[in-house]
Amino acid sequence: MEQPASRRVATPVAWIALVAAALALAVALLPAPLAHADDDPAADAATTAPAAPAAGPVPNVIITNFTYGDAPAAVGGDFTLGYTFQNMGRVAVQNMVVTVDGGDSFSIAGGTNTFYVDWLDAGYSLTQSVPMQALGSAASGAHAVTVGFRYEYVDAGVRSSGSSDIRIAVPVVQPDRFQINDPVLPESTYAGEEATVTMAYVNKGKADIANVEASIEGEGIESAVPSQYLGNVASGGTGAVGFAFTPLAAGEVNATLRISYEDPNGEAKTRDFPITLNVSESIPDTDEGMDLEPEPEPTVPLWAWIAGGAALAVPAVALAVVLARRRRARHAARQTDDGDWDDWDGGDPEAGTLDGVAADDAGASGFPARSGDGTRPGDGSSADGERTQVIADGDDGMRR
């Protein structure tokens, strides 16, 4: 059956309307930026710009090599410190300031301890040198020198700063000032007799001398103590060492005195002192138990006996003569005294005379006067007229 014309026209129109509604719904469900992407240029630029790069690591500056000369720095001596530093980062460093600090052991010998570096690219290095001096107060051993770096760098458009302090070790040695004087030899040396050689020493350094030993060796000698340990010698210390030995035979004897020790730097050292001795034959000793023959007594000659006797006889004779004269004089005086007393008895007692001599004259002559009873004062006569003997102390009393 044929449909009416109006219905045939409405069917396509319905289909068109249905499609248009579906399209409108689809447009409504789309995101807003996508719906307007072509209309907003700013949104397009934001979606197409690349991301900013991340910042890299901080650049580090380190010392890769350093020198201080061919030998350790001596106390009080100058040396040149050389060092090489390198930028280990990925960006350049700039406005760098380098400082050198010797601490308590080193000082700058001349110039300055500060340096300026304008630019140092990544991976590049630079070498500098500084004149320095080891101070007298520095002990033996390694001492630190600090090298400091202060710098700036730009990374990802941002300026930053960095720093690093690098310490390097420089060895310092004390000079060996252990002085040992020449050996003092004995004035005489005899075979078979002990002799002694002495040596004086002094430590003039500022550090101790350790493990000092002394020894003696040689042919033709013997020593009860061939080696001896003296120990340590402090700074400024003095002393002496003696080597006792016995030569075995007469003649020229050669020996060596050896002193070994450790210097302030711990280094072992040995010093030898050769000596030469002229040994004499020994003087034989007499055994104490041996009977010795008596030495003959010296004989006095006859003329000596005669001369000695004459020398003794002369004073003896002179003494005998003197004594004889004194004896005769005493005898004569005794007889004179006896005669005077006899003359006194023969005088006239009434006249007061002594054989014609007045009594006054007798008294003046030293004879005592007779008393009224016929006796003399001090006379040896008793009251009955009998004569008694007067005993005096000596001949002189008799004369008085």
TrEMBL record:
GO BP term, example: carbohydrate metabolic process
Name the domain of life this protein comes from.
Bacteria
Show the InterPro entries listed in the entry.
Ig-like_fold (IPR013783)
Q: Where is the composition biased (Low complexity)?
A: 351-364
Q: Where is this region: Disordered?
A: 331-400
Can the keyword Transmembrane be found in this entry's annotation? yes
Keyword Glycosyltransferase among UniProt keywords: no
Q: Which residues belong to the signal peptide in this entry?
A: 1-37
* Keyword vocabulary terms for this entry: Membrane, Signal, Transmembrane, Transmembrane helix
Residues annotated as transmembrane: 302-324
- The protein's name: ABC transporter permease
Which organism is the protein's source?
Bifidobacterium pullorum
